[in-house]
Write a structure and sequence with these properties.
The protein is mostly helical and 555 residues long. It has 20 helices and four strands. It has a two-stranded antiparallel sheet. It has a two-stranded antiparallel ribbon with strand order 3-4. Strand 3 and strand 4 form a beta hairpin. The radius of gyration is 26 Å and the shape is globular.
């Protein structure tokens, strides 16, 4: 066979592959369009049915306008989901790198969560908004950042920890880029917290820019959410880009409904989850992929650990992953001294931080203050006097709520824990994430037995510290299980759980398998968003539409 014929064959093969990709793209877009049209038809039919049967005759005219506007809002979300899914499918066909695929998918679906989840509906979002707003005041050099403009705290038609349709109507009416004048100055409303302002810097930067543009409350609020989302995307993007293996599980965890919901809000979980994933990724890179480990690498891990630990002290044990990377110092001169020094520094820092938080919690627990339930929290004295009873409370909590914590980490309860997805949703998402761990090649690295024990020990320490903090700081002494623990607290542990089950004897090297898992997760994201949207629009729609002028924030 001549050289020219070989070149012709390569050209024909490339043209054939290109044609196949174009056909696949057309098929995917056509299928998504058909699905969208079906959803729109069903949506309009459902609204029309509620319109006819769910309201009295005298209320039809009043309901009609709100129903139409909500249907338009829902249609816009559906069209954006179609474009987002199409973009992901096209990138898969073009074999775009996973980190850029994550960036596009997370940005698109994160923006969708940002608008589908109404203001203040995420757990403790009002707390984080107030804190970030005051920090933005310092960035603007306000004379007194604790004096705030009333118009940026206009909570009409929104509700704390609840997704309600009137908030959609207000967004449609006012928009995000509406300018406004100045209101009266008032003291910054409670609650707020300035103990660790770094975790609120991304949100504060968004508020800073929105206030420079003189935007209204919704503009200020959504700018803050958007910059929080950008910070999270940057952290996970860098984590995926850093690694050559274990990229797909990180992408899956970064795209989980719970991860994106928290990232697209004012919650500090975006900072915690992003830094945690980045710290774990760099630890894995130094331990398994990089040939050597030096003091600069150790400084990187230490810096990320210092950023993470003060946000929530219970995550300080994650910094101990530096031990795995420090093992490589055995191959260099002075290895034992470096190794022991690194381990001592890591353990000492962790013990100091954990001791600080335990002393703080214990000090609060000894006090006589009345808690949020009108009772008294458990105390250290109770644990010392009744160790068996305290142990049974911990064991009972694990037995009773372990399944709930697991499902909630993957997005079973959304909004302010007020929207419950069908149980099949988190189960399917968990299955997709588990399967993603087995994508790879035989020659890729795998954790050693000792490393798996380290992952288990770190995860167990984080869970135990979380339970202790909620036991002493949030649980009344008349409860038989620990209250206040939420599944979202354990999202930073999901990469460690994936590392525990990673093995190079069970693997699937085919790219089709990877693409199928990504498409499956994107499909579940669309299903989750549509469920939340339909739940919010259909929840007491008639009642909300009738009482619309009287609805305000119930906080």
């Amino acid at each position: 066979m001549t050289v020219d014929s070989l070149k012709d064959n390569k050209i024909m093969r490339a043209a054939h592959n290109l044609m196949q990709k174009r056909r696949l793209i057309i098929i995917v877009i056509a299928a998504l369009t058909a699905i969208a049209v079906t959803i729109v038809v069903i949506s309009i039919f459902g609204s029309a049915r509620n319109f006819i049967y769910g309201a009295e005759l005298s209320q039809l005219e009043r309901l009609n306008n709100n129903l139409v506007r909500l249907d338009i809002f829902r249609l816009c979300i559906i069209l954006f989901l179609i474009l987002s899914a199409s973009a992901v499918c096209i990138m898969l066909c073009l074999n775009i790198k996973l980190e850029y695929l994550f960036l596009v998918a997370a940005l698109c679906f994160g923006l969708t969560y940002m608008f589908v989840m109404t203001p203040m509906s995420i757990p403790d979002e009002m707390h984080h908004y107030h804190s970030a707003y005051a920090i933005a005041g310092y960035m603007l050099f306000d004379n007194n950042p604790m004096l705030v403009d009333t118009r940026h705290f206009d909570y009409r038609m929104i509700a704390s920890h609840r997704n309600i349709s009137p908030a959609y109507l207000r967004l449609i009416d006012e928009g995000v880029f509406r300018l406004y004048g100045y209101g009266q100055l008032i003291e910054l409303p409670m609650p707020y917290d300035f103990r660790y302002p770094i975790q609120h810097l991304p949100q504060a930067l968004g508020i800073f820019i929105a206030r420079l543009l003189n935007l209204s409350f919704l503009g200020v609020f959504y700018f803050g959410r958007f910059f929080n989302l950008l910070f999270y995307l940057l952290c996970v993007f860098l984590a995926i880009k850093r690694l050559s293996g274990f990229r797909l599980p990180l992408l899956m965890i970064g795209l989980l409904p719970m991860s994106l919901q928290q990232a697209a809000s004012f919650s500090s979980d975006a900072f915690i989850n992003g830094i945690s994933i980045l710290l774990i990724a760099y630890s894995v890179y130094y331990a398994y992929e990089k040939e050597s480990f030096n003091w600069r690498d150790f400084a990187t891990l230490l810096f990320l650990g210092i950023l993470l630990a003060p946000a929530k002290m219970v995550y300080a044990p994650i910094a101990l992953l530096a031990i795995l990377a420090a093992k490589k110092w055995r191959e260099s001169e002075g290895a034992k001294a470096w190794l022991l020094g690194g381990i001592i520094v890591a353990i000492s820092a962790t013990v100091a931080i954990v001791t600080f938080v335990l002393i703080s919690v214990f000090g609060e627990a000894f006090g006589p203050e009345i808690n949020w339930e009108g009772g008294h929290n458990f105390t250290v004295a109770f644990v010392l006097e009744n160790p068996i009873t305290a142990l049974l409370i911990f064991l009972r909590t694990i037995y009773h709520d372990f399944e709930c914590y697991t499902y909630c980490a993957f997005g079973w309860y959304l909004s302010g824990l007020t929207i419950t997805l069908p149980i099949s949703y988190p189960r399917i998402i968990i299955a997709i994430c588990i399967l993603s761990v087995f994508y790879g090649n035989r020659d890729e690295w795998k954790p050693a037995i000792f490393d798996r024990f380290v992952f288990i020990a770190i995860s167990g320490a984080v869970v135990l510290l979380t339970m202790i903090s909620m036991f002493l700081g949030h649980t009344s002494d008349f409860h038989v299980i620990i209250r206040g623990i939420q599944g979202r607290y354990f999202v930073p542990l999901l990469p460690l759980a994936a590392l525990m089950i990673r093995h190079n004897r069970v693997f699937v090297p085919y790219r089709f398998f990877r693409n199928a898992l990504i498409i499956a997760l994107i499909s579940m994201q669309i299903a989750v968003i549509m469920y939340v949207l339909n739940h919010t629009v259909g929840l007491d729609l008639t009642e909300f539409a009738i009482k619309l002028p009287y609805i305000c924030c119930d906080v």
